[in-house]
Amino acid sequence: MTAGVKERRARILQFVQQHGYAANEDLAKVLNVTVQTVRRDVNSMAADGIVTRHHGGASAISPTENIAYSDRQILNLKQKEAIGQKAALAIPSGASLFINIGTTTEAFARCLRGHRGLRVITNNIHVAALLAPAPECNLIIAGGTVRLRDGGIVGPAAAAMIEQYRADFGVIGISGIDDDGTLLDFDADEISAAQAIIQNARTVFLLADHTKFKRRPMARVGHISEISAFYTDQPPPPALETILRKAGVVLHVVNDTEFSERKTRKPI
To answer: What gap in Å lies between CA 225 and CA 216, rounded to an integer?
Structure first.
């Protein structure tokens, strides 16, 4: 990235942080560049989790606030698909697994539709809909309150139902990862179900794109040392990678053009 591009993107970020939202046309006028140039910058910045892209503009992201589900669906979509595809390769047909709430776990579920004989327990109605066409798939949907904004099923009943099962794999998403390896979420209602999955799965996969390294929700889910393998799209910060290595967690770094891996121990 050239110095000129860096300076322009810094000005875009400053502008949206000051105003909350900015239309591409307004940014183009302020920066004296074309709308197409602004659109390319905004798309790249959104992929890096710096701003939230909207149709015709961009808004600021707070590290302590979640963004709308519709925006999360398109944020880093290719990276999430690559993460989901790589993780799905590690799931054999006939396996039992938990899958929780999140757009990355939904990308993972789409990649499972060719598997046969899966037994899936989920608190995500989107995951259930995605896996309904899978051959011989046995689906169990946790009971509880359906959160219409993102299809999550939350509350004590959902966690209690998950705790009744033991599965080969638990596949979870997360809203943020602190520098010390603490797994964080924005919604306390989701925590009990995620914790139940971690406790009742023989092998736990964490799926999270690089933007989660910058997010700082307040609710604590657990610690990254509790998982078996971490699938992401960029190398984590050095301190976090050290924690993974010491805990014996397998690290998979996947990009959206070809799979690449960096492993801290033998693959699962």
So the answer is: 18
Structure token digits, residue 255: 């990009």
Query: What's the pLDDT at 67?
Result: 57
Q: What is the value of pTM for the model shown?
A: 0.73
User: Residue 247: pLDDT above 60?
Assistant: yes
Q: Are residues 81 and 147 in the same domain?
A: yes
Closest by Cα among 140, 149, 163 to 67: 149
| Overall number of domains in the chain | 2
Between CA 76 and CA 60 the distance in angstroms is 16
- pLDDT over threshold 90, residue 64: no
- CATH number, domain with residue 236: 3.40.50.1360
Same domain, 143 and 204: yes
Estimate to the nearest angstrom the gap between the alpha carbon of 141 and the chain centroid. 21
Contact call for residues 25 and 39 (beta carbons, < 8 A): no
Angstrom distances, CA of residue 147 to CA of 112, 114, 124, 144, 189: 24, 28, 9, 9, 10
pLDDT band at 55 (very low <50, low <70, confident <90, very high): confident
Asked if 137 and 93 count as a contact pair (C-beta separation under 8 A), the reply is no
For helices 77-89 and 103-110, angle between their N-to-C axes, nearest 10 degrees? 50
In the sheet with 51-54, reading across from the earlier edge strand, the strands are: 21-23, 57-60, 51-54
Q: Which pLDDT score is estimated for 62?
A: 59
The residues near 224 (Cβ < 8 Å, ≥ 6 apart) are 177, 181, 182, 183, 206, 230, 240, 243, 244, 247, 249
What are the CA-CA distances from residue 161 to residues 165, 195, 197, 242, 259 (Å)?
Answer: 8, 12, 10, 35, 36
> Where is 31: in which H helix or E strand?
helix 24-31
